[in-house]
Design goal:
Elements lengths: L23 H8 L3 E4 L2 H8 L7 E3 L12 E4 L26 H4 L4 H4 L27 H18 L8 H12 L1 H19 L14 H11 L9 H17 L5 H15 L10 H16 L4 H4 L5 H8 L15 H21 L8 H20 L4 H10 L2 H22 L8 H17 L9 H10 L3 H18 L3 H15 L9 H8 L8
Antiparallel strand pairs: 1-3, 2-3
Protein name: CIC11C00000000898
GO molecular function: DNA-binding transcription factor activity; transcription cis-regulatory region binding
Subcellular location: Nucleus
Length: 525
């Protein structure tokens, strides 16, 4: 057997892997000529007669059956110590999950072995394993993109530690077996790394079309059968990732297209509740969809895609692992915010009419529901399972502060949008002082990217110039530190609001400003 030698570096990649930021395990792997990965049984069978069967890992016949028609050959002389976690076979194939350490520069087993979230293959029963290109392997440049995605993108885009980051765990698990999902992660890493290295001002236009990886994955999806239930999870994870990419760069249109595509796809398969049939990964997708739907500017005009009751039903299953990577502990409040937004839409339908004997009950109904929502906000508490997981894995005090912050800003938003109290009202200004204290304590934490909506509402509520300047300083600080540009759009919306209500005596709806700009803005990040 003639083993494949070291892969050639792609054009534009430094010839020294160490200078590209790869870790020792990655460099060792690419310097080892005794490893080859085959992803096609026909190609593999040509080589089988030349090797003892003991050196051939047949993943298709393993108990886990993660990959269909995928085999891996590892040299008998290759030292696997340090590359594979305990419990793997002599071929480097783990009992549960696949170890990509030598390929992607970090130990994926940390995600697969979590007691809180055991992502065993049995939890992905409906995900297919389409054949990958022959001898598919990651180049050094692709490894650099994946490494950047893991260390600098997803770990900051979410607000929980990686070991309980359900969105990242599911994506990595799926990327092992599905090329489209892998291209999603490589594309996100490529886009954000290129933007980080660029000295020019960042563009706000759609960027997924600029990445060769996202173009490839869209080409793959175009050839798949959307009506096949076993493909649903893969389509939705790809759409969710592309949506997150666009939001992270401050896009104001294309991200919404991916959310709408997810909505249309769900409807063809039976609606949002169909996700309950897809075990854990279905819940991850359900939480992601609900969160970004509720925090979309257009939801304040049209209402949420699905009733918030449906979101609660699927995302809040008793006894199941519930922590969400994007929301952390604030999910109960996000769902209340969804009810506030849908009531805003309902109230607009009667706002133009004067109260009379025929419609007074409609106006009264809105006021009654608004009071009920205020009580729900005041009485909301962190989910017990979320508290347990966060207290064991993160700084729970920061999450408490974030929860209190969202309680206050949702109350402010309700008073602003439903009760139409202008910012100059004393109760608004007193609450704003407390909001500013919470913002200050969270701005240097891992929860900073959850501050877009609070900063937006705080800015709308700010009357004094000193308060407005402080909001802008916080926004500029987060944008510079986190390198996610969505907050730059929040900044522009606030400046426009302040032009309209310089003295804070008017209620200006932020979503009307985005509509004026021709934007669809998501305040989820």
């Amino acid at each position: 057997m003639k083993w494949l030698q070291n892969p050639e570096l792609p054009q534009g990649c430094n010839s020294d892997p160490a200078s590209e930021g790869f870790n020792n395990a990655t460099i060792e792997f690419f310097n080892d000529p005794n490893v080859e990965i085959y992803n096609n049984t026909e190609d593999l069978n040509v080589q089988m007669e030349e090797f003892d069967n003991a050196t051939i890992g047949d993943y298709n016949n393993s108990a886990n059956q993660v990959c269909n028609n995928t085999k891996y050959i590892i040299s008998p002389g290759m030292n696997l110590s340090g590359l594979n976690p305990p419990g793997t076979g002599i071929n480097g194939l783990p009992v549960s999950g696949m170890n990509l350490s030598p390929l992607i520069g970090f130990d994926v087993s940390q995600f697969m072995e979590s007691e809180a979230l055991p992502l065993s293959p049995e939890q992905f029963p409906l995900v297919p394993s389409p054949s990958l290109p022959i001898s598919h392997r990651l180049s050094p440049l692709e490894i650099a993109y994946f490494d950047y995605f893991h260390n600098n993108v997803c770990s900051r885009f979410s607000i929980v530690p990686n070991k309980i980051n359900t969105f990242l765990q599911a994506l990595v698990q799926l990327s092992v077996t599905d090329l489209a999902v892998l291209y999603c992660l490589l594309g996100w890493g490529q886009i954000m790394k290129d933007r980080h290295l660029s000295r020019t001002p960042h563009s706000s236009n759609s960027c997924t079309s600029e990445s060769e990886f996202t173009r490839k994955l869209l080409s793959i999806l175009a050839k798949r059968d959307k009506t096949n239930p076993s493909e649903l999870v893969l389509f939705l994870f790809c759409y969710a990732t592309l949506m997150c990419i666009e939001i992270s760069v401050g896009d104001t249109d294309e991200w919404s297209w991916y959310l709408t595509r997810s909505y249309n796809l769900l409807n063809t398969m039976g609606g949002y509740k169909v996700l309950s049939k897809y075990s854990h990964e279905g819940k991850v997708l359900a939480q992601n969809f609900a969160y970004f739907d509720i925090l979309a500017s257009q939801s304040n005009v049209n209402g949420t895609y699905y009733p918030v009751e449906d979101y609660n039903e699927i995302c809040c299953v008793d006894g199941s692992y519930s922590i969400d990577s994007m929301q952390g502990c604030i999910r109960p409040l996000i769902f209340i915010l969804g009810d506030v937004i849908n009531l805003i839409v309902q109230s607009k339908n009667i706002a133009s009419s004067e109260v009379n004997d025929e419609n007074w009950h409609l106006h009264n109904d809105v006021l009654v529901k608004a009071k009920e929502l205020e009580d729900r906000i005041d009485n909301a508490c962190i989910d017990a399972s979320d508290f347990k997981v966060l207290s064991e894995n993160d700084v729970i005090e920061n999450h408490y502060t974030l929860f209190a912050l969202y309680q206050m800003v949702i109350q402010l938003y309700l008073k602003h949008s439903l009760r139409r109290l202008p910012p100059v009202v004393p109760e608004i200004q007193l609450t704003l002082r407390k909001v500013n204290e919470c913002l200050l304590s969270l701005i240097d934490t891992s929860l900073a990217l959850s501050l877009s909506f609070p900063l937006l509402i705080a800015g709308i509520s700010a009357v004094r110039q000193s308060d407005r300047d402080e909001i802008l300083r916080k926004i500029n600080y987060i944008v510079e530190k986190q390198e996610f540009d969505n907050l730059t759009k929040v900044r522009r919306v606030l400046k426009e609001v302040w032009k309209i209500k310089a003295e804070g005596s008017l209620c200006v709806d932020w979503y009307k400003i985005t509509k004026k700009f021709g934007w669809r803005l998501n305040a989820g990040r």
